[in-house]
Amino acid sequence: MIEAAVLTIGDELVSGEIIDTNSAIIASSLQKAGVAVRKCLTVGDESAEIAGTLEQLISNYRIIIVSGGLGPTGDDITREATARACGRKLKYNDESAARIEKLFSRRNIKFTDNNFRQAYFPEGAEILDNERGTAPGFKCQQDNTAIYVLPGVPDEMETMLTEKVMPDILKLNSDVKPLIQKKYQVIGLGEAELEDKIKKIISNNTGVYFSFLPRGGVIEIKLTCSPEKEELLSRAERELERKLDSYIFGRGDETLTGKIGEMLKNSSRTIATAESITGGLLGKRLTDRAGSSEFFAGGVISYSRESKIKLLGVPRELLASRGEVDSEVAKLMACGVRELLAADIGLAVTGYAGPEAVDNNVGLVFGGLAVEGRHSSARWNLAGDRKRIRWLTAQFAFNLVRKYLLEEIT
Amino acid sequence: MIEAAVLTIGDELVSGEIIDTNSAIIASSLQKAGVAVRKCLTVGDESAEIAGTLEQLISNYRIIIVSGGLGPTGDDITREATARACGRKLKYNDESAARIEKLFSRRNIKFTDNNFRQAYFPEGAEILDNERGTAPGFKCQQDNTAIYVLPGVPDEMETMLTEKVMPDILKLNSDVKPLIQKKYQVIGLGEAELEDKIKKIISNNTGVYFSFLPRGGVIEIKLTCSPEKEELLSRAERELERKLDSYIFGRGDETLTGKIGEMLKNSSRTIATAESITGGLLGKRLTDRAGSSEFFAGGVISYSRESKIKLLGVPRELLASRGEVDSEVAKLMACGVRELLAADIGLAVTGYAGPEAVDNNVGLVFGGLAVEGRHSSARWNLAGDRKRIRWLTAQFAFNLVRKYLLEEIT
After folding, report:
1. pLDDT at B178 over 90
2. Which residue from A313, A348, B164, B240 has the least number of CB within 10 angstroms?
3. Residues on chain A touching B17 (C-beta within 8 angstroms)
4. Which of A48-52, B139-143, B178-182, B183-187 has the lowest mean pLDDT?
């Protein structure tokens, strides 16, 4: 497998002022083309540092993609540093200079002498035109290593990567077939518990590589293998699906709200939400995608006790005796909002998000679900800070809906 | 100046599946403490690669901060790789194991043998407890280099960084005076417009470095200088405050919702929200911080036409004749929710978030504000994708409230 490294350059990156999104975009393109990215590096606008890093990478990787430091100002020194790492001189390119000048006049931007800096390239480099900005990129073939140098502005970089760099790499890599990858989205299991559950499947299918990525109450399982092992992968998939069954809520990059939306649409049901602890997050997430008006009837953010009484019809006496964080209250909130908005399903949450809570009960949350003729509640003990507890509350509440629809539809 | 490197670990990072935000958070904390970050690196979950990278870093930097690969599963091998790079053995720590086990039982999560992996540390390491998750971190002092190893989950990492690592580093770095930095949060001006407005202040105060970071409708202005230039900085601050006046809504890391919350509390007012386009985002953001029940009466997510009629009292005829995205509708929604929840202020939004919209009107949004005896509306044309349009809607709606309160309170 061809191995690659990604190098991003900029003081604003090593100072943490800006999050480097280019590395991930580059890495994921390479990955899809069957190139293994072994290392991503970020250094500041410092010539010796860049050149030193590049030299090391040249001796270790067959592909290096560099982004950043191609601008017109004095701190943009990627051109010089790359030439240095390759032991070449910088050479002025008339054609490129004329092209840059033309670009400026077309956009009515003042052209300064600085801009001519962008017309210098390491000797022997192949120039990569930049359709979206003024800084051209270039490619240097150094011994066995191809170095592609691209601007740092994300959309300029991405366009050049897609249109110039990747086709070139695919040629280089035409003998290699990309890896096969399958993803599953799982909810309701801890990471260790999950691995324990499927450890036999993992050991029975050597050749398929399993990885786990937990994020916000969901675990993504990724199965990767070489094209020759495709059959083995299919077997592992079948075993996994059988073992995890309804813990799996999605395939690929499917999201929990996406899945619920789809299930609601397919079964022509509508949902209404009554939110205390989440303050609107359930509704916000249900409407993240267009088309949600088909299944989302609306909601009530019943953050105050009065709103639970007046809008949702939760009895004042119940709230007085059991408090607002209670299973019965959750159920009645769900019933109340279902009726209020004439929806098929009412979903409610109430709990302590912290950091302070009655009786130190941070993370105690109740979910309520109401449908025609019945209602139920669930109790969760969630860990984390306020943000995480609210997020997990939404995840588990959505999972209540999913499990109900699973039973109903299938 | 003490030099540092940041190493983040995870297959999901080098494959580009996840954007590495930890590096920027770590780098910016180090930067503030007067430590120069020279290099950020990312490698996959591969023991030899991690160990090799670490060895190189140890010989070049006095501080190394590592994050990721401390989970309980087989692909989490940062513990082993760090021990290897330091030439130490892994040692089981009873105390830490007991602590992890206790954490699990408190949360009712099943504890499996895998979890004990998290109780192994390189010999001689100092254990750094993780208050938010199960994976403890650790510190290894190797010759002249301090290596801090933290979990990859962003909020766990950040808490440990702030509470355990940075105080330790500040001790190490006590002879260096950190740079002075002041931040302003501005709303209602474009970036070019802002820079034009204050260009004289910038040129009059050489020695103070100005930077602008636009994010989601707000621009953060950062003023940085060396400790010797503190007086100049104060002058620049005074000039800036005079010039930008009420465009400035906050100082430091103050947020728009934080500011509104504070103003509402100070003036003993309550607010209620009626959301169409934002689907719950207003409420969610108002309740992001604890204590919001003091000023947030609750809200209605009137995503459907029926809910605007039944819950908010918007006349059916008005909706039929003018549609749901309309200034009058926005006003009546604000009045309706204010009355329904007996709040001092009613805030409403309705608009087209896209990607599809009536008459190609994606980004057309109306805000409504109702207070005792009067109501008003605002019209915005917002650009961006669905997510950005919804976010900007919230920003501008909150700014309506801020401007109203500014007039009322002062």
Report:
1. no
2. A313
3. 24, 28, 213
4. B178-182
Nearest to A164 by CA among A95, A65, A92, A88: A65
Tally of structural domains, chain B: 3
* Residue pLDDT, tens place only, B335-383: 999 999 999 999 999 999 988 877 789 999 999 999 999 999 999 999 8
Residue A141 lies in domain: 3-172
Is the domain of A196 the same as that of A148?
Answer: no
Residues near B217 by beta carbon (within 8 Å), at least 6 away in sequence: B187, B391, B392, B395, B396
Of A211, A298, A354, nearest to B301 by CB-CB distance is A298
> Do B88 and B13 share a domain, yes or no?
yes
Residues of B within 8 A of A49 (CB-CB) are 38-39
Token pair for A168 = 């070139």
Q: What is the ipTM of this complex?
A: 0.76
Higher pLDDT, B114 or A88: A88
Confidence of residue B173 (pLDDT cuts 50, 70, 90): low
pLDDT at B61 over 90: yes
Does A110 score more than 80 pLDDT? no
Interface-testing mutation among B213, B301, B312, B385, with chain A (most A C-beta atoms within 10 A): B301
Q: Is the pLDDT of residue B176 over 80?
A: no
Asked if B110 lies within 8 A of A26 by C-beta distance, the reply is: no
- Asked if B40 and A44 come within 8 Å (Cβ–Cβ), the reply is no
CA distance B10 to chain A (A): 10
Q: What is the CATH number of the domain that holds B289?
A: 3.90.950.20
- Domain boundary among the residues A251, A271, A301 is at A251
Which tokens go with A278? Answer: 């989440």
Q: Are residue B28 and residue B157 in the same domain, yes or no?
A: yes
Nearest Cβ partner for B355 among A275, A290, A303: A290
Inspect the interface and report whether the beta carbons of A212 and B311 lie closer than 8 Å: no
**Predicted local confidence at residue A173, as pLDDT:** 66
- Residues A189 and A123 grouped into a single domain: no
Looking at residue A192, which CATH number applies to its domain?
Answer: 3.30.70.2860
Q: Is the pLDDT of residue B39 over 80?
A: yes
Tokens linked to A405: 């629809």
- The answer to whether B149 and B138 have CB atoms below 8 angstroms apart is yes
Residues B333, B318 within the same domain: yes
Task: Looking at the structure, tell me whether residues B135 and B189 fall in a common domain.
Answer: no
Domain check: are A302 and A187 in the same one?
A: no
- Residues in chain A within 8 Å Cβ distance of B306: 297, 341-342
Cβ distance A375 to A369 under 8 Å? yes
Question: Would you state the pLDDT for residue A408?
Answer: 81
Kindly give the pairing relationship between strand A271-275 and strand A296-301: parallel
Q: CA of A364: which chain B residue's CA is closest?
A: B107
pLDDT over threshold 90, residue B60: yes
Note the pLDDT tens digit of each residue in B104-137.
777 666 777 778 888 999 999 999 999 888 889 9
Instruction: Provide the β-strand partners of residue A285.
Output: none
Structure-block tokens of residue B144? 């002249």
pLDDT at B210: 86
Query: Which of B:256-315 have CB within 8 Å of A?
Result: 273, 275, 278-290, 292-293, 296-304, 306-307, 310-311
Q: Which strands, in side-by-side order, build the sheet including A36-43?
A: A126-128, A137-142, A145-150, A63-67, A3-9, A36-43, B36-43, B3-9, B63-67, B145-150, B137-142, B126-128
Same domain? B235 vs B286: no
pLDDT at residue B159 is higher than 80:
yes
CB contact under 8 A, A303 and B283: yes
pLDDT at B100: 83
Contact of B72 with chain A, judged by CB distance below 8 Å, is answered with: yes
Instruction: Write the CATH number for A38.
Output: 3.40.980.10
CA dist A114 and B397 (Å) reads 43
Structure tokens at B89: 């053995």
Q: Which of B204, B228, B251 is the last residue of a domain?
A: B251
